[in-house]
Design a protein that fits this description.
alpha/beta, Beta-carbonic Anhydrase, Chain A, 2 domains, five-stranded mixed beta sheet, 10 helices, 5 strands, 14% strand, binds cobalt (II) ion
């Protein structure tokens, strides 16, 4: 077997070695570290981000294990029939009672870029269709931006803003607001070119800003 192939097959081993070192570092800082974490989690934040390997939720926000509940998918989408996203959201809001949900997109997002193009990418085109719908909703603004990179950056931002709205359209979020739960939804964009997180200033706290067709009546008190 060529040396290169052996090396590639063993590349995963460094992850296990890193883990041993990490455990030791944590235990050196606090011998009770894992014992405390094992008792439960009370994260204040739910992060909905892109799967992109360059946007690690904990690392870019300086949060530690236990501080952030995380859901990631391609292009940080909130798709209303995605059972995975809905389950994460319901658990985070109803059980963990997170105070902030952050949808975080990123400039240079391959998913958003692919959705902007007319190329076929296979099965993923069905996922990217959700982003194409965002383009259509904002086509007047986007088509008016001549510079392709500027249009791409704006599309990333608009995609985040639409996902923020889509969170507000769920009964999970609307019921939490109706029962007076302190729940804020934020839209952020991370710049992989400089590491900076940008708050788009679209904090959402009530369903009142949505078109009335999305506003559910409150459930009767049980
Ligand atoms: Co991405």
């Amino acid at each position: 077997m060529p040396d290169k192939q052996i090396k590639m097959e063993k590349s995963y081993q460094k992850l296990l070695d890193n883990n041993k070192n990490w455990v030791q570092t944590k235990l050196n800082q606090n011998p009770e570290y894992f014992k405390i974490l094992a008792q439960g989690q009370t994260p204040e934040y739910l992060w909905i981000g892109c799967s992109d390997s360059r946007v690690p939720a904990n690392e870019v926000t300086g949060t530690n294990p236990g501080e952030m509940f995380v859901h990631r998918n391609i292009a940080n989408l909130v798709v209303h029939n995605d059972l995975n996203l809905l389950s994460v959201l319901a658990y985070a809001v109803d059980v963990l009672k997170v105070k902030h949900v952050i949808v975080c997109g990123h400039y240079g997002c391959g998913g958003v870029q692919a959705a902007m193009s007319n190329k076929q990418y296979g099965l993923i085109d069905n996922w990217l269709r959700n982003i194409k719908d965002v383009y259509r909703t904002h086509s007047t603004e986007l088509d008016a931006i001549e510079d392709e990179n500027s249009r791409f950056r704006r599309f990333v931002e608009l995609n985040v803003m639409e996902q923020v709205k889509d969170l507000g359209k769920t009964t999970i979020v609307q019921n939490a607001w109706a029962r007076g739960q302190n729940l804020h939804i934020h839209g952020w964009v991370y710049d992989i070119a400089d590491g900076i997180l940008h708050d788009l200033g679209v904090t959402f706290r009530s369903a009142g800003d949505l078109h009335r067709v999305y506003q559910f009546e409150s459930l009767p008190a049980s």
